[in-house]
Amino acid sequence: MGYASKVYFIKVAESDPADAVSARLAELVDKSRVLDAVGPGDKTAVKMHFGEEGNTGHVRAEYAGIVCRKITARGAEPFLADTNTLYRGRRTTSADHIKLAAEHGFTKKACGAGVIVPDDTKKGSVTDVEIDGEFFKTAKVASIFLKADSIVSLAHFKGHIMTAFGGGLKNIGMGCASREGKLAQHSEIAPIVYLERCEGCMACVKSCPADAIRSEGGRIVIDPAKCIGCATCIAECVRGAIEVDWEAGGMKIQEKMVEYASAVLLKKKKHLAFINFATKITKECDCLAKDDPRIIPDIGIFASNDPVSVDKACYDACINASGKDIFKTVHPDRDGSKQLKYAAKLGLGDLDYELIEL
User: Fold this and answer.
1) Is residue 126 classed as helix, strand or coil in its secondary structure?
2) How far is the C-alpha of 124 from the C-alpha of 302, rounded, in Å?
3) Which domains does the chain have, with CATH numbers?
4) CA atoms within 13 A on the CB side of 135
């Protein structure tokens, strides 16, 4: 891109009351002017992760409400949106997903915007986007994001079992994909069972959303033909008996995710805004983390119109706060910088940035 993108930042501590954070967030949105990407009359998709049941790390509804009302004040019409999951849970179907979002406070009354979770089994809900990627020539994306006039990403910046960390790029790349698109990104990731570590507790069998794991003569067997690569079994195994060939899958998934992000981001270009919450930074994502503890103290909230810069700024801040690459420490086989470099290579944003603290 040839210049350093601006990333705006406010500090947030765990002890800060929600109303104080709300006030600072409003200040961040106003002074950063990231919502200049939203025009009057826009139908604006506010891309969220509403949190799995029991999760406490996802971006809070009251913070989403502040952003939605700022969008409305610009004469635009915001709606909160996410897509359904591959794994079995409260976010597998649209009806259950919307109900869970409401339980977490995401309602039109509370946020000033309705919640849309498209049913990708219905005609027209998924669009095939042509891309010239190394892994994909076509990306299957939820149509609502492509039809939106502008997109505002509200992402919780945290660790991730397969991509080292997840931020704005993951929120779009994985989060805007249909379930078929998610499966395509996760393919080639076939877990391996290390029998010498396995105690036969059957937790992996019970937790597998694809019924791809069974016990044969006391031995755990994973059927790669059925496996959807969701990593639920890895998270459930307390003995660390299930792993993945990360070079074959876990490293590729970052680039696949970025290619899917490009299918959305390159269509919208100057109609994009990204706000990352580097708070309650957990080892795992909001699908698996439940009420996991922090791996480093809260840092703050970052805003930019550049998805690469805002993720890089969060990544760097976490490294600076911990004195090491904390995400590589908790996920030794993952290198989160890979997604950032590939995104920059595809022209999605800039690795260089100017950090402006407010």
Assistant:
1) strand
2) 34
3) 5-184+250-357 (3.40.50.11440), 190-244 (3.30.70.20)
4) 24
Query: Pairing state of beta strands 353-357 and 5-11?
Result: parallel
Comparing C-alpha atoms, which of 74, 43, 8 is closest to residue 143?
43
Continuous H helices in the chain: 18-32, 61-73, 94-103, 108-111, 143-147, 168-173, 179-186, 203-207, 232-236, 252-268, 307-322, 326-330, 337-345
* Dihedral angle computed from the Cα positions of residues 344, 349, 352 and 358, in that order, rounded to the nearest 10 degrees: -150
Distance CA 150, CA 147 (A): 9
Residue position matching structure tokens 């259950």: 96
Residues in the chain: 358
Largest Cα–Cα separation, the chain: 64
Residue at 121: amino acid letter:
T
DSSP state of 8: E
Q: Tokens 């959305």 sit at which residue?
A: 264
Extract the tokens encoding 78.
């915001």
Contact 166, 285 (CB under 8 A): yes
Task: Return the DSSP state at 110.
Answer: H
pLDDT by position in tens, the chain (length 358): 447 899 999 999 999 999 999 999 999 999 999 999 999 999 999 999 999 998 999 999 999 999 999 999 999 999 999 999 877 789 989 999 999 999 999 999 999 999 999 998 899 999 999 999 999 999 999 999 999 999 999 999 999 988 999 999 999 999 999 988 987 888 766 678 999 999 999 999 998 988 999 999 889 999 988 887 777 787 788 888 987 665 556 668 999 999 999 999 999 989 999 999 999 999 999 987 778 899 999 999 999 999 999 999 999 999 999 999 999 999 998 999 999 999 999 999 999 999 999 9
How far, in Å, CA of 260 to CA of 3, rounded?
A: 25
pTM exceeds 0.90: no
Alpha helices in 238-306 (DSSP H): 252-268
